[in-house]
Amino acid sequence: MSIGYRISASALALGLAASAAFAQTDDFWRQAGAQFEGVTLHGVTESTPPSNYIKDVLAPQFTELTGINVEIETTSWDQMYDKAIKDMEAGTGIYDMVYIEQDIIYSYLSRDFLVNISQALADKPELKAPNFDEANFTTFADYFRDEDGGLYGIPMEAFIKLYLYRTDLFADPEVQAAFKEQFGRDLAPAKTHEEYTQIAEFFTKLGQDRGEDLWGTTAQAHTGHPASWYEYVESVAPTFGVYNWGINAENNFAATVENGGSMNSPEAKEALRWWLHLRDIAPPESSASTWSETATTFAAGRVAQGLIYGENAAWIASDENQSRVVGNVGVALPPVAEGVMEAAESGEGYIGYYDGGAFGIPVSSQNQDAAVLFAQFIAQPEVQAQWAVAAPRITVSSTYDAPEVQELNTSLGGYFDLLRDQGKLFAGAPPFPFHAQLREAISPIFYQILTGDIEPDAGLDQMAAKTEEELTALGYRK
Amino acid sequence: MRSNKLGWMLLAPTLVILGLFGVVPFIYVLWVSFHQWNPFAANPEMIANGADNFRQLVFDTGFLSSLSVTLAFVFFAVTSELILGYALAQAFMKDFPGKAFFRTIHTLPLIMAPIIVGSIWKLMTTPSIGIIPDLLDSWFGYDLNIGQSAVAAFVTTVVMDIWHWTPLVTLSLIAALVALPADPFEQAQIDGASKRQIFWHITLPMIRPAIVATVFIRLMDALRVVDEVLMLTGGGPGSATRYIGVHIFREVFPRTNYGYGSAVSVVVLYITILVCWLLYVGLIAPRNNKA
Questions:
Q1: Interval B188-242: pLDDT, tens
Q2: Do B148 and A439 touch (CB under 8 A)?
Q3: Could you report the per-residue pLDDT of B46-68, keeping only the tens digit for each?
């Protein structure tokens, strides 16, 4: 038997097996859905590419197979939370599925808002899809588990906030020569804060000298939007070794140095001063930039490097309708202070933000069983690759190896490799049930630091003190 | 007696709707304002705390700062809208080529949702991208950055509000001017009154009810401005445009500080009523007394 014949036969056998498996799962969805025919599931989520894919592609497929209608409402981040929380708080049962961003899961769990999906499937094994297995998920799913391991959300998007740089600028011989002459080293993605600052200053000056709209770095530094606060606490402070917003949960939620926290530690102050300097040499729109606008700034070719949320990496690198830097995007790990990388590798720290979200089922839902079916449907390994291509998110491990994902990985400068291999160095938001409450209490001080009304060091002292005051008022700090 | 019953029957739907959507929510907010309630606190239950919330807001610098910038915003926005609206109304009272076209164009902002107005102004004012900073830089060398300059942000929100709401004032005053009888004006002209005298002694007194009604409406609207400012500046830079509506939004929604947020809402309602009453006393009551 020739090798070619054997390969063909194997391929045919695999194809038949796969077809049989698909047919089996299709049968499951039809049979499981039959009892819910006519039911309409309502979901609310943030309007992002992964959510839009659910709305436009996965929901119609699910309806076709099961007969269960699905209406997904995609809206702004604020509106999404406003609607979901009001519904769950009042127990009205409007929504059968809600988007849970990683940083709010702890608040939801503390209020018992969500259905334990693991338990629901254990209680009703007839609802369990043959191809659903919690072991399929990447470790990001762990953020949506309680201490007993119960899963409260089906991960549907996961990104890291990474260091993007312009490969065309970094590889330009003229630019390289000028950089080497000035700094005595080769131009390469920064590994330290000092290197990052040098590169940023270099390109900002280059832009000025050439009369071009080019700056050295992005800065997510809106003076009235929480995005700036998040950039500092989640993406900048950790690279200086300040973790969990500088709050020590194990020490009575202390924030001030004198009480055992680190929000106003020397490292935190150094981090803030470093970032404020970058803000000052970033494009002028930075003071009005949130997470979306920094991506737009990068895509417009106005900066040489920046910290960008991974959900934007794909369109920046590949969509010519939206980006002027297609094919010229490189990815790297963010610069860190001495000892931080070692701490991240040993699991004692982290170097940046692992962002993402899941679909959860409110306990107030009137259609929990049908929603459990839908949750499993979007978790199937078979639907993940196309979803990852449409929106660069991976929550199921096998997706990394799909040919179409590998192809996209190349055009993204190895983003998916970075996510798979180095994702462990990043961390989601700390497990606090008071994220938004604390943020809103102290962000006004942070905004005043940004406008220069308060000195950075004094501002961090005020923020740390206010944090302890607020957590005491909320009853978390005794 | 029969007609009385019929009257109540006809009024009933309105009273029910008003009760359900006006009175009941107000009573609920009033009740919540006497409680400490944050569903994401360690104790998520409502805890009665008497007047603590009201006592707290007297010393809350965030609230006081918010209140003062709001009053400044209301003063500048409503005054400008009134003056500009009257000038435009007078202009539209005269015939000129393209009058109907201009009148239609000038009312377009009125039909836009505030959130859209905020988006448009954000696009127009974002540094490096917006047309307004670009023009100001080209013409006057002025670097407009509403993300950095508190004054620039404040002025921009006032201008945005003027752009959005002046047409309402214009339309109200056009309606009032059109309805004025011609006799007093002809009589005044015959008597040799100047234009200024006619304005102060005939036009203004005769359109005063329309002016007061319009100012009431605009005052109440301006005091509760939220959407467009939230979209344009987010309340920043710092707290420069954190008007009271934005402050309440942030307290009640992201911070879920329901008790304290309700107390602030109640106080703002009281302030709104107080300002309107002062306006009434200043503009309407003296006239009624004279009569």
A1: 999 999 999 999 999 999 999 899 999 999 999 999 999 999 999 999 899 999 9
A2: no
A3: 999 999 999 999 999 999 999 99
Instruction: Give Cα A286 to chain centroid, integer Å.
Output: 21
Packing angle, helices A368-377 and A3-34, rounded to 10: 160
Pairs across A and B, CB distance < 8 A: 106
Q: Report which of A314, A278, A309 is spatially closest to residue A413, judged by C-alpha positions.
A: A314
Chain B residues in contact with A440 by the CB 8 A cut-off are 250-251, 254-255, 257
Kindly provide the ipTM of the predicted complex, given to two decimals: 0.86
Provide the 10 A C-beta neighbour count for residue B278. Answer: 10
Q: How many CB atoms lie within 10 A of CB A343?
A: 18
Mutate to test the interface with B, among A223, A286, A303 (most CBs of B within 10 A): A223
* Residues of chain B contacting A223 with CB distance shorter than 8 Å: 147-148, 234, 236-238
Homologous superfamily of B62-261:
MetI-like (1.10.3720.10)
Kindly state the tokens that stand for B40: 């994401």
User: Which three-class secondary structure state does DSSP give residue A332?
Assistant: strand
Instruction: Give the lowest-confidence range in A240-249, B150-159, B282-291.
Output: B282-291
Question: Domain residue spans in chain B?
Answer: 24-59, 62-261
CA dihedral sign of residues B283, B284, B289, B291: positive
**Cβ of B144 under 8 Å from any chain A Cβ?**
no
CB proximity B127 to A under 8 Å: yes
Beta strand residue intervals within A112-258, DSSP E: 154-166
Q: Cβ distance A306 to A289 under 8 Å?
A: no
**Would you call B159 helix, strand, or coil by DSSP?**
helix
As given in the structure block, the two tokens for residue B21 are 């959507």
Contact present, A291 and A227 (Cβ < 8 Å): yes
**Chain A within 8 Å of B247 (Cβ-Cβ)?**
no
Dihedral sign computed on CA atoms, order A279, A291, A253, A423 = negative
Q: H-helix or E-strand containing A42? A: strand A40-46
CA distance B180 to B172: 13
Q: Which long-range contacts (CB under 8 A, 24 or more apart) does A399-407 make?
A: none
Name the residue facing A283 among B128, B236, B237 (closest C-beta).
Answer: B128
pLDDT band at B289 (very low <50, low <70, confident <90, very high): low
> Rounded to the nearest 5°, which phi and psi values hold at A400?
-55, -35
pLDDT tens string A49-67:
889 999 999 999 999 999 9
Tell me if chain A has a CB within 8 Å of the CB of B129.
yes
